[in-house]
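Continuing the series of single-chain predictions for the mutant panel. This is the parent chain; the variants come on the following pages.
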Amino acid sequence: MVLTREPDTASAATPERGTWVAAAVGVGAGALTLGTAELLAAAWVRLVGSAGVSSPLLAVGGAFVDLTPPWLKDFAVETFGTADKLALGVGMAVVLILLCAAIGVLTLRRRPWGTTAFTLVGVVGAVAVFSRPATGVLDLVPTVVGVGLGAWLLGRLVDRLRAADSVEAAWAQEAASEGTGGSGEANPVTGATRRAVLVSAGGLTALGAVGILAGQALATVGRTVQRGAEALGIPVPTRTVSVPEGAGSDVGGHSAYVTPNEDYYRIDTALRVPRVDAANWSLRVTGLVDEEIEISYADLMEEEHVEALVTLTCVSNQVGGDLVGNAVWQGWPIRELLARAGVQPEADMVLSRSTDGWTAGTPIEALTDERDALLAVAMNGEPLPAEHGFPVRMVVPGLYGYVSATKWVTELKVTRFDADEGYWTPRGWAELGPIKTASRIDVPREGRGLAPDADGAVVFAGVAWAQHRGIDRVEVQVDGGQWEEASLMEEPSVDSWRLWTHRWVGEPGEHSLAVRATDGTGEVQTDISAPPAPDGASGWHRVGFQIG
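Parent structure:
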């Protein structure tokens, strides 16, 4: 027989077979919440024109990055490299799935507690949204709507599941008392109800996934971010650079002297690459200046541009790491813009700000001396790729990126170090960030073998850098023996890296190789090993290899 009655929503007892269905309901409600919020957030930015971040996924991810201590940042970059953002996204997805599944089970067992927990997670997302730069109260609307819809559906589906459980419990008790069945036998009607709830949960999960993907697509599709560059063109620079053939080498596996745009490393805090329309871009110079200035992209294109060979390095680069690259940058010298604004004598720092709110504190002298510190608009002869800062970014030789290389730059605030801080300084990183003399072995790679030529010789190859000081010497050491001077390729600029090679004759078998560089000031690269935090990694790069 089948009994029907109203669900006992206050009951704490739940048959075990409903637990997994409740977990699926929680995941479905969470997915629909995020899908709704992401889709509305993308549409909200387009309709309202908000400069803030209304996406809860980006907001929570950004808040996590903001709170990341240096040791965890080092671990993430060392472990995942330029895929650190993908790793963060996967990690967030796993945590959210487990959390929503647990909330679904809690809602089944203690409905008020479950719905409260779901709402609190939504509040965390809303707080994260509101904490992002340039975000207003209206930017909370997508998250609030998504949480409200998800909470309502969570309650409805769990009520159906609880009703089925109550009916089944009563049916089993009645069947046992009549001797027609044992306690705990499944009721076919309630089994069908559970299956229907499970299908609904799956549908919500699918809809949520579609909403997330559609929101991500809507946030980028249809925005011709390089419209201004295509309309105005890249100006012909008044000073160009040339790369002599002797700056590179033909050794297999050796780094190219100029790093192709598609291979250039990318490290920043932006979880979604900002899409900035050059036609609407502007840069303000504020703070301790005689006159505040604002220039447009068209204004910038009319200035006299120069080209410069500059190697950029991330402070998180490990010894021997690949978070370094060399390019031909084109732009307008920052010193000319600052001179036009009139820097006041007490200023010692420029706080640059990105369109996504990220900041860097750069020593004023690095932007006003004769080095090629640029407002760059082109990279290797092409307009800046979006992931490298289109339409305009800063390029400053001699400083790690975290204190100088602001992408998507929108403001230069002339200020003082005792009045303002860049993004990473209060998080434990050094205030000034000068690049350390460093060198790397490209050939051989760790654990790889080298085939000797007819004379029994092998060739080592690598790069060394000490931006704004240059490289005067590179030495290699095999098996802890004497240091031998390597051959240096040509050096067209002290602001870029220098390639080196060395021919060595040795016996077949296993060997070890170390490298060190001497910069243009005569300073020898230190062997004292130190992690990237707080001011860049140090130590000689060492690899093991085999001959034969």
